[in-house]
């Protein structure tokens, strides 16, 4: 029962409208305490003051405390003052009222707060279940399928798509779960939350072929939630006879409120964790191809910055980068604090950690692909994405910049970026034939 509650979808219209209706009815009830002009004037004054307080709280959190790492979406500015206004009305109802109105008013405070939380969460769209909102994983354990120690027959020569034929026992869908036992952090000591693993149908059959690997990281605040990339790869495998990369979704935060910058810092040795714990574990425990061209490091937002950094630093491991609405460099949302607190005021050290400078230093990249995606309405990250893409191209990478039409920096950018990005990467990973060359029309 507990798992069923945590798996409840809280972004669906039916769920949200229920809360809107209940909140609306409660507001009307609280307004109807008395039927006098004086009461209504005072009640509306309470609503107005509550809304002002709510707006001030958001303003201070965004502009003074930088609690959200930058600007917030319009829904935060709408729903927070609305919730404060309604809560103020509920508190005002506690005076001079009967006991049952007091109970309803107290309950209404919780309803108004939750309605605002659910509405704002749905606008962002990343946390689709109650468990995700509470940062509680409900994924089932999954046991990795290791590479065979003595394959029955060697793989045919040539790209995988050219010789692969789906066997009769090919499952219709892949599986997503939480890595059973987690990925050991023996080298780094980084307290990562359990990784999730997606295995496509082609990985689940007898004598399965070695497949490409994607190591993916979500945004901050966030969790190693593999549902988004799994859904995208499910769409692709259905059109490619069960072929898709194996995807390993790892935690680069350790806690939703922290951003260790995908470096080795006092907040945790993330870089060591990914490169010296995760990468060796994947080689030993997953049936994946070994060559860098079949290894992709990807991520969304904060994870996109991590992907760009790791791909720039370690081309001998990751031949491909998939940065979805990625931040331009570590701590880009608060450079002054990052400079002081992480780099001790050493601007040269900070600059050396920026992907564009890393790429310029390590250039050329003879066989690296970089796919950058960003929403067409993302005014916050678009310029940084363009600068990183230009730096990657200057450093010799094969670069694609994909614009997700109509998307901002929300779930639409994540879903669209995954879909568009793998459209570019599938031929590179030899899961699909290369696109037909464009033919110039005859004059």
Describe this structure in words.
By secondary structure, the chain is an alpha/beta fold. The chain folds into two domains: 123 residues, no CATH class; 287 residues, Alpha/Beta hydrolase fold, catalytic domain (Rossmann fold, 3-Layer(aba) Sandwich). It contains 15 helices and eleven strands. The strands form two sheets. A nine-stranded mixed β-sheet has the order 1-2-3-5-4-8-9-10-11, sandwiched between helices. The protein has a two-stranded antiparallel sheet with strand order 6-7.
Number of helices: 15
Q: Using the coordinates above, name the CATH class of the largest domain.
A: Alpha Beta
Number of strands: 11
Structural class: alpha/beta
Strand fraction equals 5-15%
CATH superfamily of the largest domain: Alpha/Beta hydrolase fold, catalytic domain
Strand order across the largest sheet: 1-2-3-5-4-8-9-10-11
The third-level CATH topology of the largest domain is Rossmann fold
Rg is 25 Å
- Number of individual domains: 2
Give the overall shape. globular
CATH architecture level-2 label of the largest domain: 3-Layer(aba) Sandwich
| Ends apart, CA distance between termini | 68 Å
Give helix % range.
40-55%
The largest sheet, given as strand count, sense and whether it forms a barrel, is: 9 strands, mixed
Mean pLDDT across all residues, rounded? Answer: 93
Low confidence ranges: none
Protein name: Esterase
InterPro entries: AB_hydrolase_fold, Esterase-like, Mycobacterial_A85_antigen
GO molecular function, one term: acyltransferase activity, transferring groups other than amino-acyl groups
Keywords: Membrane, Transmembrane, Transmembrane helix
